[in-house]
Design a protein that fits this description.
2 strands, alpha+beta, 30% helix, globular, two-stranded parallel sheet
């Protein structure tokens, strides 16, 4: 998950939104928060089940 998470953050446009739906490779991942802050981006998480 780390590889996809960081590459998705890297590809965000300024003021972009990162939406995470479910997990594939575990519940933990590393995220460069500075990159989110400099891009003024938002991150949201959700699941498809109940």
């Amino acid at each position: 998950m780390d590889h996809y998470l960081q590459s998705n953050v890297h590809s965000l446009a300024p003021d972009g939104r990162l939406v995470i739906i479910g997990v594939q490779n575990g519940l933990e991942g590393e995220l460069n928060l500075a990159e989110l802050l400099f891009k003024r981006a938002s991150a949201f998480g959700t699941t498809c089940g109940h």
